[in-house]
Amino acid sequence: MSEAQDDQLLNHRIVYSMLVPAIRVGLHVGLPLKDLTNLLQLAAFQILRDKSDTLDTIADIMSVSKRTAARLSRRLKTEFFDPDREHDLPRQIEFLLWSTPLSRVKLRQALRELDPVDVDAALDNLLSQGRVRLTEGRTPIFEVVRSAERLPRDDWRARIGGLNSLMTTVADTVRGRFFKSDQSSFARTLIFRASPEGLERLRKLYEETIWPVAREIEEETGSSSDAAPISMSVLWSSAPADQENDDD
Predict the structure, then answer these.
(1) Are 183 and 207 in contact (CB under 8 A)?
(2) What is the pLDDT of residue 48?
(3) Domain limits of the chain?
(4) CATH fold of 81-185, please?
(5) Is 69 in contact with 62 (CB distance < 8 Å)?
(6) Which DSSP string corresponds to 150-185?
């Protein structure tokens, strides 16, 4: 087998490995194969649209008619929302406020590349969800509501936004480790048994150690010229019984 064939096989295996979990979830919720195929096509359209490609260019790349590309565009606008504005921006503001309480003006300055209207809307969203509070004074400031005081949230749009962030981190890590030899990309999977008390220790590990260390690193980095943007996800789940003895 030639080197080019080896590379093609590897590319196919990587994409296949990433598709299997998505298809497993789709079949679990009862989506027919036709719907799964349509969603795959829609996702490809969104990625190309986000690169600012024209409808003609997208149609050529996807080997579909311009009419089909236009239909995908309409469906994307009517059935799907903008996670960057509805989830990622509030989360970014929340992270800034973990470091130190800030006024509205200071937040706008820290996020100067964004539209102030979007920043204000995100702040209003955070306030309504009980994730931040506004402390009145000579200069009103926003501060984060610590986890023990937070209001419970079951907003599916926010959860989908979180899922988008998670899968973006996974995809970026795959690109870094398989295609870029990026030493800053890191991935490990641990499989072990845990009691309810053990699960509580894991939650405390995130809230009392991982999250504070991430904030400290952000503060220490400042405007360093060699700083790299890091997207880090922390997750765990109950592993199927047939995986408990795996060594991955």
Answers:
(1) no
(2) 92
(3) 3-79, 81-185, 188-248
(4) Arc Repressor Mutant, subunit A (1.10.10)
(5) yes
(6) PPP---HHHHHHHHHHHHHHHHHHHIIIIIS--TT-
